[in-house]
Automatic annotation (TrEMBL):
Belongs to the UPF0065 (bug) family. Residues 1-31 form the signal peptide. CDD domains: PBP2_Bug27. SUPFAM superfamilies: Periplasmic binding protein-like II. The keyword Signal applies. This is Tripartite-type tricarboxylate transporter, receptor component TctC. It comes from Rhodopseudomonas pseudopalustris. Keywords: Receptor, Signal.
Length: 332
């Protein structure tokens, strides 16, 4: 009789334990609530190859997050068209704060550039904070006859379709910026996309292009060597790294184009984790040493709230959709 009662008690205890496990909070939620996040390494997936602005930005921030939060943060590069490979990797990961994504202005462009982007950056990601912003320079050869952007615009108006303007690949922010500039200035020129920054600059230096558009980080070598000159910058204000270069707005054009990099988490990530990361990032991004390092790449450090980042992503999706439709670029 005692044996039977004992067996019943053991079964009952096992059932209660199983129910307790099923109804217990998930470890990451409990850890976040108790201020324990992170308790293990955190992966930041970057949709670009190593060595670029986004990659360097992510690595500098990851190192400081590790020091700030007491766990290792590491970068994993997953380059691919439209950031699809990287996005899928993050979306498919548990929304526990241990897999994060670096998304960019290019993500907003991809929404309209692809016939059917296999992920929704607004619905499937939770914003954390912007990291940095950078603009683009409109450059010519050092011996070009144009001394100002106004010189180029006047010449283009006198000879419609004569000039060649180069950018990197079709559908890039630089490539779309050329179309925005052409419309705002009321001029006509041929836009020639290139495979990458090296090819673009070779074409410019060889005289195959009259003007090129790219980021400061890509152009700084030839700028420093005096082989090319910047006529204008695309940002809303003059950049601290190129304070002598006027903006397109100063030339009377209603054009403002900035690219950005930001940190996101999979949708469903606990708010406590997002708050922990955002708070840490605001402290990190205020560091003068980090600001100096990124400014040397042409990136101006600028953090923000998750709501601000969400609004920026939505507005950029709408903006680039209109530009892509007006440009007649065939969807991929």
């Amino acid at each position: 009789m005692i044996s039977i009662r004992r067996r019943r008690f053991v079964r009952l205890a096992a059932t209660v334990a199983a129910l307790a496990l099923l109804t217990a909070p998930q470890p990451v939620v409990r850890a976040a609530a108790e201020g324990l996040y992170p308790t293990r390494p955190v992966r930041i997936v970057v949709p670009f190859a190593a060595g670029g602005v986004a990659d360097i930005t992510a690595r500098l921030v990851a190192d400081r997050l590790g020091v700030k939060l007491g766990s290792r943060f590491f970068v994993e590069n997953q380059p691919g068209a439209g950031g699809i490979v990287a996005a899928r990797s993050v979306i498919q990961a548990p929304p526990d704060g241990y897999t994060l994504a670096l998304l960019s202005n290019g993500t907003a462009i991809s929404v309209s550039l692809f016939k059917k982007l296999p992920f929704d950056p607004v619905k499937e990601f939770t914003p954390i904070s912007t990291l940095g912003f950078f603009d683009f320079l409109f450059v010519v050869r050092a011996d070009a006859p144009f001394k100002t952007m106004d010189d180029f615009i006047k010449a283009a108006k006198q000879s419609p379709g004569r000039f060649n303007v180069g950018t990197i690949n079709l559908g890039s922010t630089q490539n779309l910026a050329a179309g925005v500039f052409r419309t705002a200035a009321g001029i006509d020129f041929v836009v020639i996309p290139h495979r990458g920054a090296p090819d673009l600059q070779i074409s410019l230096l060889q005289g195959n292009l009259d003007l090129a558009i790219d980021s400061y980080s890509a152009l700084k070598g030839n700028l420093a060597d005096g082989k090319i000159r910047a006529l204008a910058a695309s940002g809303p204000l003059r950049s601290k790294i190129t304070p002598d270069v006027p903006t397109l707005r100063e030339d009377g054009l209603e054009v403002s184009i900035e690219s950005w990099n930001a940190l996101f988490a999979p949708a469903g990530t606990p708010p406590a984790v997002i708050s922990t990361l955002n708070s840490a990032l605001q402290d990190i991004l205020a560091d003068p040493a980090l600001k100096k390092q990124l400014l040397e790449l042409g990136v101006e450090v600028r953090g923000g709230t998750p709501d601000q980042l969400a609004a920026r992503l939505r507005s950029d999706i709408e903006k680039w959709q209109a530009v892509i439709e007006a440009s007649g670029i065939e969807k991929q």
